[in-house]
Amino acid sequence: MQITDLTGTVQLANGVHMPYFGLGVWQTNEGQEVVDAVTYALDAGYRHIDTAAIYKNEEGVGIAIANNKTDRKDIFVTSKVWNADQGYDKTLRAFDDSLSKLKTDYLDLYLIHWPVKGQYKETWRALEQLYADGRVKAIGVSNFLQHHLEDLFQSAKVLPMVDQLEFHPYLVQQSLLDFCGQHHIQFEAWSPLMQGNAFKVDELVSLAQKYGVSVAQLVLRWDLQKGVVTIPKSIRQQRIIANAEVFNFEITPEDVAAIDALDREQRFGPNPDSFDF
Question: Which residues are catalytic?
Answer without folding.
Answer: 55
